[in-house]
Amino acid sequence: MYKYLLGLMLITLSVSVEANTVSLKYHSAVDTISSKVKVNNNTVSGLFGSYNIQEYGSADTILAFCVDPYQLANSSFNNYVKSDLDATDFINNGAARFQNVQKLFDNAYSLIAGNDTKSAGFHLALWEIFNDNSNVASGKIKTISGTNAAMRSYADDLLDSLNGWETKGLYDLTFYKSGTYQDYLGVNPVSSVPVPAALPLLASSLVGLGFMRRRKNV
């Protein structure tokens, strides 16, 4: 019985961390402003800030940020691969980019709720970390005369602060990847009782069951 329960526990954990496919669509803007930037020398106009996305079959929405400036948002349901964000989700310098994304959320995300300009600057900084050189004045993604000045200034401040920040693991970041439409990054506060912390309690309980069974058989 003990071996069976332990095996079932391990199988459940392994399945839970695997990527899976969900059907999502853009639902609505949350804290956003309209602005412009250049992406690969093309002027792009859009809403910068946080969005709500919706999973098919659910009435609830997921707070997320677009992390893909190269494709359009999807207004109808389409398939996305859902997984925990990690270093493999970046084209190059994955470990450093992943760490900087986590730093950005750990140190600045709590400051932007309800503030359209800060949310937009946070979004622009996220685009830079994911796709470019973390400098809004140069590279593949850069600000222009039509860029909102306050958004640009806040993004600059966030990017300049990265080196002095530490990762704290305060947020779970979920990556939603599409080959056709914009990719999204969903965010949730880390549970006060993480699953790994509960595992020793479960393991000790199973050991106790095994011990009681041996005593009964003596």
Short overview:
The chain is α+β, with helices and mostly antiparallel strands and 218 residues long. It has helices at residues 2-16, 94-108, 116-131, 149-161, 195-217; strands spanning 20-39, 42-55, 61-66, 78-84, 141-142, 171-177, 184-189.
Overview of the structural elements:
With 218 residues, the chain is of the alpha+beta class. It has one domain. Helix content is 38%, strand content 28%. It is built from five helices and seven strands, in the order H-E-E-E-E-H-H-E-H-E-E-H. The protein has helices spanning 2-16, 94-108, 116-131, 149-161, 195-217, and strands spanning 20-39, 42-55, 61-66, 78-84, 141-142, 171-177, 184-189. It has a six-stranded antiparallel beta barrel with strand order 1-2-3-7-6-4. Strand 2 and strand 3 (61-66) form a beta hairpin. Helix 2 runs antiparallel to helix 3 and helix 3 packs across helix 4 (149-161). Mean pLDDT is 86; it is low at 4-17, 192-199 and 201-209.
Chain-wise SSE layout:
Elements: H1 2-16, E1 20-39, E2 42-55, E3 61-66, E4 78-84, H2 94-108, H3 116-131, E5 141-142, H4 149-161, E6 171-177, E7 184-189, H5 195-217
